[in-house]
Structure formats: C-alpha cells, structure tokens
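#lab-general

N.A. 3:47 PM
ok so I finally got the sequence cleaned up, no stray characters, all 390 residues accounted for. can someone with queue access submit it? mine expired

B.Y. 3:52 PM
send it over

N.A. 3:53 PM
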Amino acid sequence: MKKVIFVNSHPIQYFAPLYKYLNNQGLKTKAWYCSDYSIKGGYDKEFGVNVKWDIPLLQGYDYQFFKNFSTNKELYMGFFGLINFGMVSQIFKEPKSVIIVHGWNFFTHFLVLLLAKIKGHTVCLRSETPMVHEQYKSGWKQKIKLFGLKHILFPRIDYFLYIGKQNKLFFKSLGVNEDNLFFCPYSIDNKRFGNAYKTYLPQRLDLKKNIGIPEQDKVILYSGKYIDKKRPLDLLMAFKTLNKKDCWLVMVGEGELRKKMEKIIKENQIKNVVLTGFINQSIIAEYYALSDVFVMCSTLGETWGLSVNEAMNFNLPVILSDLTGSSYDLVQEGVNGYTFKTGNVDQLCKQLDKLLYNNSLTWSKSSQDIIKDYSYDTILDSLEQIVKTK
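B.Y. 4:20 PM
back already:
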C-alpha cells in the first residue's frame, strides 16, 4: 500500500492529530513541512501576542522539515514566503506515494502540484476555497487565476479533496469531474473534544462562577482573532442591541481590534462582556462547556471556521454568517442554529433573541449528530479509496 504524504506550510494544531489518527488506523502517513514556525512559537501578527500551541504537534506520525530559502519567512507574506527546493527535489527521490498538498498559495506547494505526477505519484489537492467567496471576486487577476487553475494546474492533479459543499462547488465550476472528487471534510479531533464535553459539562456552573457569571445567566460565545475578517464588532453591537441583563458575551481571543472593542464597550456602557485574551488549546474546552450558543460572524476569507466544529462537539447551537464557509454544511436552519447575512447586525440580534429567549430550535438533529460526519473517520474512508484506486 502506498504511503500518504501531506504537504503543509507548518505543523497545524488541527491537522497533526489527524496524521496520528491515520497512522494508528494503519494508513502510513508522513508530513512534509515548509517551516517550523508553530513549533518554535513566536509573535502572531493577527493575534498580536506570542503564540505557542500547547498540544503535541509532532507525535504519532513521521515528518520532515525542509529548509526555506525565502528571504521573507513570515507565513503571512504571500506566495514567495515558502521556497523549499529540497522538497521539490525529494518528490523525485520518494517511492511512488499519494501526495496531498494543502492549497496552491505558496511557491513550494505550487511546484509540488505541478511536478509530482512526473515521478508517478498520485497527486491530490486539498483546498479551502468556497464558491460563495469567489462570486465576490472579479478583474483580470481573478480571470488569470481561474484560467491557470483550470488549464495548467488542475490537469496535473488526480484527485480533489473537498472540505465541504461550497468547496466542491468551486472545483466543479472549473470542470472537475465527480469521479475525481472525494469528501475530506475539515475536521477536528472529535474524540478529544467529546471527552472534554463529558468532563467539563458537570463543572459548568463552577466554570461560569470562575469568570464572574451568575449560574442562571445565558452565555454567548465568540472564539477567534479580534481582526476585521472575523467581524467581532458585529457581535458586540448585536449584543448591545439585544440588551438582556441576564445574558453575557464571552469573546475568546486577541488581536488588533481589542482597543477599538474596549472603546466601544466603554462609550456605550455595554455590560457583561468578557474579553479573555489568547486562550490555548488545552483549556479552550472550558469556555465551550459554560456557553449556551456559539457565534461566528466572519466575512470573506473565512473559508471554513474550525471553531464551529469544536463548539458543536459540545452540542452548542450555532449562529453563523453566510460568508462563513462551514455555514452551508454545519447549520441546519431552525434545527441546530441559524445563519444571517454577513454584516447585518439587526438580523444577528434577532437570531440570538429567537434562539436564547424563544426556544425556537427544533433539535430534530443535534449539533453533535451533525458533526459526526465531519470526522477523521470520514477522511480515512476517502483516503483508503484513493490509495486502493491508484
């Protein structure tokens, strides 16, 4: 059986447990990394603080780091931020494998996708692009991008691993056949979060008390960076409009908008808001356990939103903006949550009021039941098919 090799920019807290799981299930898995950014830890521009994840990122699977020759080694600095000639060379030394590249937005990733098939590897692309986001893009750069993908890059790829409905629509819009599409959803370690749910739920009242929330009060949870893409100000203003004395807004995260958020809170005398600062993976579960609803109000650029997966493992109802990529997969309208038009604060406020104060959800299918299909098991099934096919 062929080995599976994942090509990533750096070790990622959501992906590393997947690679360990695949190995444990008998699918030989290795990761090739262009950078050790997340292992060393350091200043995260978007969080605005030093970040080092506190869960194991290199355990349970084989991995290899390749030297980055870019003069600009910051991950947020565009296409030429990752130039790893050693990885490109390695594809011609490696025995025939299934190579899965995450996106085409770095020079190294693009070259591997272009060249790996020459050696006889089975080449797979796993990207995040949702069709709904592409509809907002225009101009000559967009036309060149789509032409290059359809006529230059995509013909060199064997299989396309789509993460959700909108991502599948994007691939199909560029002529990818159904037979070449495999569902490999964006997933988290459901088992770990499911166990955390069982552990922390009995402690819910104590967890609320620890941050000063009365046990009978309701809690709206936000988890993400305080940056424009995440639109935290929308939720803050919707909470102000909601104006319920027995309701709290807990905003887990950090970022450049903090000062603006603090100013709005002070000027508008908004009570019952907690800005936590950066919260690491080992304790994030405590915040899901004490909450009543999870909200993500992101705009263009939020291709999925894995915090939604985390919240749904705690069986939380969810309210998501219609430009959050996962909203088309994870929200069943009126069942486990609602969507709202991105940027529409009034609509967001109404959805919060309906959910929290009018018990409007049917729960004919729970968040936990829905999220079961977005799992490592689903990914394993698809990859086993690919390994056996080629």
